[in-house]
Amino acid sequence: MKKIINQPGDVVTQMVKGLASAHADILAQVPDTQVLYRTVETPNIVGIVSGGGSGHEPSHAGFVGKGMLSAAVSGEVFTSPTPDQIFEGIKAADNGAGVFLVIKNYTGDVMNFEIAQEFAEAEGIETAAIIVDDDIAMEDSTYTAGRRGIAGTVFMHKIIGYYADQGKSLTELADIAVKVNNNLKSIGLALSAATVPEVGKPGFDIAADEFEYGIGIHGEPGYRREKIKPASEMAAELIARLNEEFAWAEGNHYAVLVNGMGGTPLMELYLFWNDIHEQLTAAGLQIDFVKVGNLMTSLDMEGASLTLLKVPSEDAEWITALQAPVNTAAWG
Hints:
- The structure is a single chain.
- Strand 5 (99-104), helix 3 and strand 6 (127-132) form a beta-alpha-beta unit.
- The strands form 2 sheets. Strands 1-2-4-3-5-6 form a 6-stranded mixed β-sheet, with helices on both faces. A 6-stranded mixed β-sheet has the order 9-8-7-12-10-11, with helices on both faces.
- The longest helix has 17 residues, at 266-282.
- The protein contains 8 helices and 12 strands.
- By secondary structure, the chain is α/β, with parallel strands linked by helices.
- Helix 6 (231-246) crosses helix 7.
């Protein structure tokens, strides 16, 4: 293992400190925690909190700032943050109008965020939550009952953050989040495994000439392993699986995220998007928003995921929400 670290056990605490000092104009750290919160004054609007295990950077702390998250909680690598840490995030995000939680569907995350909600309610802080389960690759997998939450969560951050800043209530945000989640689907692939610093070796073995469809962001198993093939054929498989879910029709409107898993060069991500774009437009879809980059990673894993958000005509403002400028470390 070769990594730019000090001691493996200190990676997360030192990373959080680094984020806070590098972006001190927009972020601050809750003392003695792994919680980062936005420093902009936002009175009387709903606070938005997300988080999970570290190793997915820039998710989630990279999206803390005006227009997106109010606070993010970083657990240890690939490990849910504890309820008390999440509660600190809720308190930091509370502006007097309640706090909305965006939770990826992993058993530990769901349990610990729900316990933190109970702490908050006992302190008089009203909360609501959405459990994002956008990964269509597997119905049940390691750490998960039901579908996993992966890169589509970033679109949820962006849309809910926009509506919170527009002054929507906790109930209104919950209704929007359910509809977004119902129209949000993702699927990924991996060419190599991630190496957790405290483990010191890749999380699974895969041959140099193989890749795997449907892998999870913690290295959970996918649904098929094959010999490496051209990007256009990989794109066709992901698109076919997404179409099984959406059953789209010509003229349907979509937002698209091509997400890198941490070890994939941007050259390859943009090449991959080029193939995806050609195939989606050939199917007659209207692509209203595109984002390409490393947004929900898996440490140094080589691979990518494809997220599609169907935008119903009555919800065209979702595109406005995705396009709206923000002040965060990582959205760009």
